[in-house]
Amino acid sequence: ISQGSPVGVNIAGNQLIEMFKLPQVATGKRVKAVDYDRIKVDNEVYDMDPDAVVYRREDTYYEKEPISLNELPEAEYTTVQMYADKSLSSGGKVRVILVW
Which of 34, 28, 6 is nearest to 78 (CA)? Predict the structure, then answer.
């Protein structure tokens, strides 16, 4: 897993079972709307986990700052990348959103 890559983890009890790189499932230019379990980027709506996290990329070294989902529709970001636990066609949900 390379630096700056979103990851998922499987934990059983207090033990880490697995760590894996989340696949990038979509890229867009603008978040148009967000609700509890969906996000609209450009003209496409994606299923999103209610506990999805959003990071604003600070620089080319992938320093990231967490931000609120509520900030996304008003912000002027030009790139939106979404990562899910598995492919969206297999029932995956967006879990990490990276904007800049």
Answer: 28
